[in-house]
Amino acid sequence: MDTADQTNMSQVKQEQEHIADPILLTEEMRKIFVGGLTLETKEEDLKEFMERMSGGQVSDLVIIKKENEKKTAFGFVTFETSELVDELLLKRKELNFNNRTLDVNRAVPKNHVTAGAHDKTKKLFVANLPRSGCTEDDLETYFKCRHRCKYGEIESVHLIKKKDEKGNKTSENRGIGFILVSTEDMADKMAIQHSTFEFGGRKIELKKSVPTTEGGGGGGRGRGGRGGRGGGQQANYGGGYDMYGGGNYGGYDSYGSNFYGGGSGYGGGYGDYSGGYGGGYGGGYGGSPAPRGRGARGRGRYNPY
Length: 305
Prior knowledge:
Elements: H1 3-17, E1 31-38, H2 43-54, E2 58-64, E3 72-79, H3 82-90, E4 96-97, E5 100-101, E6 103-106, E7 123-127, H4 136-144, E8 154-163, E9 169-181, H5 184-193, E10 196-199, E11 202-208, H6 235-238
Antiparallel strand pairs: 1-3, 1-6, 2-3, 4-5, 7-9, 7-11, 8-9, 10-11
């Protein structure tokens, strides 16, 4: 069998093994934020553009304008399938509409208020993993079966191990780990799709990794894994994971105690729209900036519901 045939068989096998989680059918996985619109933008024109670029149907669309405060508008677009969002984001550089390059990102659900939910990063944090019977390969396989390579890849999985009295690593998991993916868009998707999931008989939690030295979460721009106040990716995986609990994630002891630290300060900035678009939308489209307290030093991502 030549190399081309082996490659084709590998691709076919991957397609056969692909698992579509039920959450992909929900609105939160099918919605995007669109910034950089003009006040003159018509919904029917934007809908036609989005359908043409994604290759599929738009099920809902709204444009939000604040004429007295800004010369630009923003909106939200919901597609028929989550995969259409993936297709659209692959064409990010081509999203020029009415002579403007659109600011397009997967929308962050309103209940995602943990530190870093709105940041740009390729690194994810996973918690409450089984102490034993769970390997990096197991976790990598779980995610790879649920994400097509076309839209991004799992680059590495690193599980934190317990240490013995002499400081030597053991085979026992501490219950937490880190996942590095190939694109920021993939990290955005995974943080929503896998915020909680069943694995190894446990309820696992996943969020974006935000290094910080401040307890309770926050800090850091998150782009490319660089920390802000946390001093970057240095000792203890980000200069503030506090031995992987009680610091950046505010309460994950050795095996995760089911809560993250406070995520205050996110989402403030796109104005206070009620009736389904409340909560504020971070930095720059018609509202006040997010407070500069803990958890508010990200890039001002979008809290759209």
